[in-house]
Design a protein that fits this description.
alpha+beta, about 290 residues, single chain, about 30% strand, 9 helices, 2 domains, CBS domain Like, about 30% helix, elongated, two-stranded antiparallel sheet, Hsp33 domain
């Protein structure tokens, strides 16, 4: 039976002031999102898990106190995945794929879009193409950080799956602090070549943020500067759904009342079901 544990993001700075490092364990969060979305293959599970982990890392790096969404679109434009993560740690995801799709092909014309809320309430968006020849979520995230955020960053996200179940998911982000030259980056790049693919590390049971820090910064002194929990969680509620329906055109609300039956709605993100009685629908119509 899979263990129950708390997911966490851990931040650290190397004692020489050269690098900021963020590591995370997203195992339970990924399990919750996959259980809700029910991807049709292990390949889709891995891509979805990597996007969720990557979104958590990028939010904690660029927008820790605000919401962030990461949208990954496949080469053919027919399928996409969404990761939605909030400052309280609540994170959810959505898979929108043709019913017969077993993978989300990337590397020819796949796109990664990041949308994050700024402190003034405005929205910052950036879109990058998934690098050819490196069709992975990790490569797409690094391209985004370099091109859109102008930040030199190394990222590796991964998910270890066994017997159709998520055993471990997580990742790391290493950033060169802006006031330093790229000399230290060359040294760090060599150090991290062993962990470009993080899945073998996760498979060895090194999924906790502290273990990921110790492995990626082996023999390099560092200081932990903060942590926070993350978890699978959805923002849906009867009140939010009612507010959304209240904004519908009057004719649409009338059509919902035609058969005289309660309206059942399922949340696309978490599969929670909500029921609205005819009286509740009528009250929406009266206030429209």
């Amino acid at each position: 039976m899979l263990s129950v544990h708390t997911d966490k993001v851990l931040r650290a700075i190397t004692d020489d002031g050269a690098f900021r490092v963020i590591t995370c364990d997203t195992t339970a969060t990924v399990r919750g999102a996959i259980a809700a979305q029910r991807p049709q293959s292990a390949e889709l599970m891995r891509t979805f898990a990597d996007l969720i982990t990557g979104a958590i890392l990028v939010r904690d790096s660029m927008s820790p106190d605000n919401r962030l969404q990461a949208i990954l679109q496949g080469d053919d434009g027919r399928g996409r995945m969404i990761a939605d993560t909030h400052p309280d740690g609540a994170t959810r995801g959505l898979i929108q794929m043709p019913a017969d799709s077993k993978e989300l092909p990337l590397g020819r014309s796949g796109l990664l879009q990041i949308a994050r809320t700024l402190h003034n309430g405005s929205l910052h968006q950036g879109v990058v193409r998934v690098p050819e020849g490196a069709a992975s979520v990790s490569a797409a995230l690094m391209a985004y950080m370099q091109d859109s955020e102008q930040t030199v960053t190394m990222i590796s996200v991964g998910c270890h799956i066994a017997n159709g179940e998520v055993v471990a998911a997580g990742g790391y982000m290493v950033q060169l602090l802006p006031e330093l030259s790229e000399g230290p980056l060359m040294v760090m790049t060599e150090r991290l070549k062993e962990f470009e693919d993080i899945v073998p590390l996760l498979a060895r049971g090194k999924a906790s943020p502290s273990e990921l820090l110790a492995e990626t910064l082996y023999a390099m002194p560092y200081t932990e500067v903060g942590d926070r929990e993350v978890f699978f969680g959805c923002r849906c509620s009867p009140e939010r759904l009612a507010q959304s329906m209240a904004s519908l055109p009057r004719a649409d609300i009338e059509s919902l009342l035609e058969d005289g039956k309660p309206l059942e709605i399922e949340c696309d993100y978490c599969r929670a079901r909500y029921e609205f009685s005819t009286q509740e629908l009528q009250s929406l119509l009266d206030s429209n």
